[in-house]
Specification:
Elements: H1 7-14, E1 19-20, E2 22-27, E3 33-38, E4 42-45, E5 50-56, H2 62-65, E6 70-75, H3 81-88, E7 100-102, E8 108-110, E9 115-127, E10 130-142, E11 149-151, E12 154-156
Antiparallel strand pairs: 1-11, 2-3, 2-6, 4-5, 5-10, 6-9, 7-8, 9-10, 11-12
Length: about 160
Amino acid sequence: MTNAFNEVEFRRTLGTFATGITVVSMVNGNGQFDGLTVNSFNSVSLDPPLILWSLSLTSPRFAMLQNIPHFAINILAADQIAIADRFATQNDDPFDGIETTLGLGGVPLLQGCVAILECRTETTYPGGDHLIFIGHVERLHYQVGEPLVYWNSGYRTLAY
């Protein structure tokens, strides 16, 4: 094993770890619904209930999202690949034609997800080329269903 590696090797290595796919939804700095596909979601603490996700410093929406007071983690179901793709690209109105309800802080919540965590931004931390959001979970919803998974540079489903 060598200590020398490049960014491509690092990304490929991280790709061997299967993650769930989420859409983080929020109201941006202009007061508009916004959201992005994120697989950097993780639990932090059970007591208090804290989660984290990270936003690239080079995201074209960084300035509009860095100070959001509330957000929701929408954990996508296996049949929501089109939604994952829609929110993975810059889109003027990614919510166009998508059914939502309003959550805490007026945040849009996606329908059909296996789970939704409604959060208040507890704090943010610099993390290399990303800003790390720590969210305090204030309300949650979940249902039995198969999640959408990302592994080895592609969407997957669970076989159980």
